[in-house]
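Continuing from the previous page of notes. For each protein in this section, the sequence appears first, followed by its structure tokens. Read the first protein now.
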Amino acid sequence: MFRLCVCCLLLLAAGQLSAQEGAAQRLGEKKPLPSPEQLIEQLSSPEYAQREAAGRALGALGEAARPALEAALRLPHPETRLQARRILELMDEGDFDRALDALLADDAGGPDHALPGWPRFRSLVGRDLASRQLFVLMLRAERDVLTAAQEGKRAAATQLQTRCQQLQVESTADQREIPAGSLATVFFLAGDEQLPEMPGV
């Protein structure tokens, strides 16, 4: 009788151990991560928490998610398009900040930096630390104007003229100095002989 009880207890313990091992294995199994396309679908979920989780996951994927995010800009659902655009803007902003950090850290004059206006600025002003700091200040203040100047001279002239008027109005209305980065950008671009002449600049 005693032997029978011991056998029953051993069988019961073995069953519990087996069940625990099975549960541990199930806990250890990792679910496959959703693809960028699956996460894009979740951006239009009626549940806010699921939309936010999908947005964070797409942002964490970084460049691997870019093709799916760019494709999502053409989807019919407005919430999906809006979220995809927001994530892409955050990714681009992160890339831009990293590019500026790389320029500031480049004491050795390493590979060229793909920043709008940098080749002309470097040839005119130089590339020592003070010059690089000034250029970063300009880009942070007037990135759009410098980008326009690199992409097309006529459009850049119009945008620069508009920006000069904005800065003048802002400084007069608020009675404050024009930011140094903005002022340096105006002088830098106004001295570009390839830009069409702009009255008042």
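Done with the first. The second protein uses the same format. Note its length before scrolling.
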Amino acid sequence: VVRLADGLVAKYGTGVRREEANNQTFAYYNVDESILRVPRVFRFFEDTSQGSRVGYLIMEYIAGRRLDSIDLDCNPQVMLDVAKAVLHLTTLPVPRNQPPGPVGGGVAYGYLWSDEGAQAPFDSVEDMQEWMNKRLAVVSRERLNIKPYKLVMCHMDLVRRNTVLLADTSICFLDWAYAGFFPQVFEICYI
């Protein structure tokens, strides 16, 4: 991430994808800013002129302190506010015909998937469950049943470096690359 000007940063690289911009834009327009701040996306574009795809995400710079630089033992309210923000994400409206995965559809990326992501979009919760159970079968006879869980907005990378405490004590989540609509239990697994 590179700061371009006051209030403006660019995140770029081969791992920066349109899905991240879609996730972040959706969150920006749907969260209650008194509970959670999300950097506004100004533009996303890709450059393939050098033979590989490089994504560029131009967004709002939000000043604050990342949680990895704060002694949380001395600031217990911060963790309560983070928990409130995570819970708030689960109340966001699910877009019509939204499959599991990134906002608007697309390949799911993150720690639950392979290094290349899920490699194909999921059409349904059943499709995602089948994908996961096929991989689980390599190490276990157990099967997942995620059908009972409704899809909710999940950030899916809630580590301290991606969480910022603003001067007014509000919380901001950064890095929406792995976010999307997933069973709520997925967010709990990530934490």
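What the second structure shows: The chain has one domain: 2-190. The domain at 2-190 is CATH 3.90.1200 (Aminoglycoside 3'-phosphotransferase; Chain: A, domain 2). We return to this in next week's lecture.
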